[in-house]
Amino acid sequence: MKINNKVKLAIVVVLLAACSAGGYQYYQTQQTAKQAAAIETADVQRMNLKSTVSATGTINPVDSVEVSPKITARITSILVKENDTVSSGQTVATLDGKDYEAKRDQAQYKVTNTKQDYERYLYLYQVGAGTKQALDTAEYNYNTAVSALSEAESDVNETIITAPMSGVVVGDPKPVGTMAVQGNSNPTVIMRIADTSTKQIQAKIDETDIGQIKLGQNATFTVDTYSGQTFTAHVSKISQTDTSNTWDTNSSSSSSSSSSSSSSSASVIYYYVTLDVDDPDNVLRLGMTARVDIETADVNDALVVPIAALKTDDNGSYVLRVNSAGQTEQVAVTTGIMSDEYVQILSGLDAGDKVSITYNTSSSKSSSSSSSSSKNKQQGPPPM
Length: 384
Prior knowledge:
384 residues; conserved putative lor/sdh protein from methanococcus maripaludis s2 fold; CATH 2.40.50.100; 5 helices; 21 strands; 29% helix; elongated
């Protein structure tokens, strides 16, 4: 039996249609599989969550003092060395006192002479042979000499350097023979004494985080020399002014250029926060760099998602919830506290939900743009 051309054409059309439908179905299946594979998901779960503020600081003694001279003289002896324990009032060094002793002897000689003059003028005045003016002058000269002698004796006493507090000598003292110079602006520091039994950390916190810091908050920190070991501390003082006192216009140069002012206003503002350190074994050394995490909030059994899942747009925060078919839907959420890895979800999700933690390539351009911006905002405190 012959098949006419019309039947042949119809058969070909049907076969082509079937192949096209099958091919399209296969393509759709493959694309859906690829899309599902491209979406990395995370479970919405419950855990105990802590929010922290990170900072870097230096370990310092709570009490320390620089020992400087009250007179200018050459150091003749150093009676202690680094790491020695000293008591308050203990002699730790001596200065060359020959010149000051000579001035004291001269002052003593002048006191003796002016006293004799005063006594002679007093006698003459009492018997009517002297004037009151001469007596007053003699008395003034005598009192001036006594004051000079007292000052000279004080200078001699200052050649003996004593420890103003009990503690440990930190660092090497100045060597014998050094000229120790007095002064208010830049005196010679003969040695430093510190109470190393109590330590603290002075950390810098930027203005975006300082509002979360409260007195008494607990903190943990690490130091490079004891890798893997964590130490504890607590906040004991929060500075009321920033580290540069940028608010004090009187202390800054009034002649600074406008470009300099603009640069200053654009810089990050930091505040000093002091933390008392727990170091019962006295293993921490002064000057060590401490990497501090201050605990600012603590929520038990919090509903959380990874920070990478959180996105924002003009309407607020949202996540992309993933259903069983691998499809995503945008869900608005209300957030709470945040750790380095997770953010608390107060509303919008339930435990067991799955959320996308990657950007879906099929999402709109504007959605991807806002998500990227949100991710950048969640990078923690600015670099120190």
